Amino acid sequence: MLTRFITRQRWLVLFVTLLAMVRHVAADNSFDKALKPAFTEFCIKCHGQEKVKGKVNLHEIKTEAQWLANPELIKKVIQALDSADMPPQDEPQLDETKRAELVAALKGMLSASTVDAPAARNPISRLNRFQYNNAIGDLFQLKSNVFFLPEKLMTRHDNYLASSPISLPDRVDVACHSLEESGGFKNVQSYPKDLRAQHGFDNQASQLTLSPLLLESFLKLSVSILDSPDFNEKTVGIWNEFFREPQAGAKMKDEIRKRLRPFLAKAFRSSVDDATLDRYTDYTLSKINEGVPFTDCMKKVASAALCSPKFLFRTVGATGDQYALASRLSFFLWNSGPDEKLLALADSGELAKPEVLKKTIERMIVDPKIEGFLDAFPAQWMQLENILASVPDPNLNRYFKLDKENPASLQMVLEPLLLFDAVFIEDRPIVELLAPAFSYRSEFLQTWYSSELKPPVLNIAQIAEANRKLEEQRIALEQSIQTAHAELAAMVDPVKEQLLARRVNEAEVGNTKPIDLKPYAAWEFNGDLTDSVGGLDLKAQGKIQYKDGMVVLDGAFLQSKGLPIELKAKTLEIWLLLKNAQQSGGGAMTVQGPGDFFDSIVLGERKAGHWISGSNGHSRTLDFEGSTPEPEGEQDQLLHLVMVYQADGTTTLYRNGVPYGKPYRKGKAAFPKEQTSVLFGLRHLPPGGNKSLAMNLDRARLYDRALTATEVAASAGGVNMVVTDKELLAALTAQQRARHSELTATLKKSETAANKLPKPLDPQTAKQEAQNRFENEIRNQIKSRVFQREANSDPRYGGVITNAAVMTMTSSSKRTLPIARGAWVIEVILNDPPPPPPNDVPPLNEESGPKNLTIREKFAQHRANPSCAGCHTRIDPLGFALENFDITGRWRDKYENGRDVDASGTLMKKHKFESVVQFKASLVQEKERFAKAFTEHLLRFALSRELEPADILTVDEIILHAKRDDYRMRSILRHVIQSDLFLQLK
Length: 986
What we know:
986 residues
């Protein structure tokens, strides 16, 4: 039989010793002398005489035999007295000495009541999803999960557990991937998530059933894992020794047996008898004889093993079965099956020996596989999975789901989990889970807790002053530019006029007066698109090539970036080779206004037309009157087209210097400044048109004024009206050239400075930009995986209670839920959950009553119901203590209606508090009670079942030992494992 560390018989001795020390309890501890008087004085009124509350009738119990025959009732009374829940607050109270005496006496009676009762049998339990995934991973030495596990709320990307640390690094790289719905092997789908028991654990045997449908899922799952393309020699650590085909000449049956024995022993977590080994060996040989490749045969037999009840179930085993002990240890601490060392100790019979067991516990606690425990127990104990379903009203906090793919909950859930990791790794007292001196937080959580969650406030006066200074600089630069332009014009304009006049005379146009043509922009197509005037860069789209000094546009067009002009009195001029302008649709020259508004010269079937199109009601016009097909003999000549825009809105088209059709009045059509572009080539198609314009451009110019008919004729006559800088400088004197250089440099410098000046800042625009920058910063923070250890400078925050995750998941989308928060504290922290509310009690109507009431005042009306008062007396103070935290865990001093938050209350009828800081301090004072509750949760997780009445005596044993170590995490863990209850394998 396995060694027991403290037996129930020793508890009886301890109980007798305690009785001798208690002055108010009779020496013989008789039921009549010790308990009946206390029941009569403090209990019978509510439990049997006038009424029966909580279905507990103490008045019916007349004898000690009746009392000892009901250990469940004894347990309830112990818990009610020990937690100070009874007597009710409005009834006479027990002094603490009397309460302690009664609790000690009742525990002795509970021991006597259960000493001869058969021990609670530890039930057979199916592997849950965590355990299945981890067991598969360890069995095949895989490098990743086999399927997606949303239950794994924290992924440690820096794998700090791999080095068996004695302290958690100050800076860690962690993330929650539970909402990604991805991960695991390709083509592998897990079976449904396991049901959670009342206390949140998913490893409770009562919930882990195996229906025929689920069994079929396991069959498909095992096949899909072994057949997955991700299951290969690179990802499977045992590939070579198990799956790789043996060398030629090997005895196949012997080779298979040699490989299967250790594999099955680890898969079944026990020794493998010859009959079982023969059965699996024969199956493998039969597949080989059928011609199935060796590796595939080994996959099939491995898949068959994974479907065996010996793999799917954690068997209890006979009394003293140390393989069962090895499994219980490994599934408790690693959430996986035992390794070779554990199985070897079980096989040798050494595992249950106290010293061996102690060393084994220490080895397992520091093994990296302890991650299995840290992945499962803390998240399920704190019920943190609920945070992932929380969706606070965006009207109350829009930043919670600012990034829809990465809600704030993914950061919040990591804070309490990292704290648990730190307390476990550093073996700290578990009371530090309630009020630690440090926390692990990301930059996002620091912002969440300590900032107003608002962009910086803009200083309007500073913006106005900055705008004023900008305007002063702009005016000064514009004055400098105007002065330089004026001096340059005075110097070069006469020279330009002389050069142009000479050209006109040489061309014998007949105009003796020099033509004053100053293009706004001009393009000479000599192999590039360099603007010969102002460096304007054309945007090329479609198919464009350069040939014979011209630009060939074939189904393409050239587009300016947008000319900073208002096109009212301007002229567009193009030269193009006529022979290619034959396809219908399109336009050779277009001005584009706001939106889809266009004004074009339309070329089609060797004719010219005018087209206005846009959403403002304009449509295509007829061809210019008098437009006729081009004579056959002139097919290959250059065509000169000019469109002149007059200030009154009239448009005139010239062909080869001659007016073409009647002028067209475009009326309300407009091309405003900063919204106008000039295009050459295809731009617009008629309804149903699919063909593109093809043409050769020789040159294109935009003049900053409307040309006269004479000037148009001069241009059509071939006069080059652009004076290059080289020509101009050659015509200047040396002194003029020097001054020209100075002025040009000044102009360039001033224009560059003017272009670099920022635009005046509009306060509304600045406000929106600040908001955008702030939101982008929040989005970046929420994606970060870096959490930093920080000292808790603000005692309001920190710990497993006062963190954003717990506060958010115990709130509705619109308001905090004090009852849900109180219930969470009383269940998770104190392990004293209340019964469900009566069915005949309506829920609280949040909308009823005056709007200026606080939640506490609204619940005061609800508590007036006698059926509710008992539980609410216990729960409400715990929930209202947390009311300073809003629906997303941010601090508030007032409600939305302006009323102050009242967080005062009393814990266990003896610790008065006025704030959440004092509330947490009160819980710290009750650290033994917290340690007991924590141990009960831990024991429930370790045993995979609910606790029986007698089990609370084991909890007392564990607490008695752990108290010597100040209730340190690992001390409690060790004593749970070393307890009779854990070691009792029958």
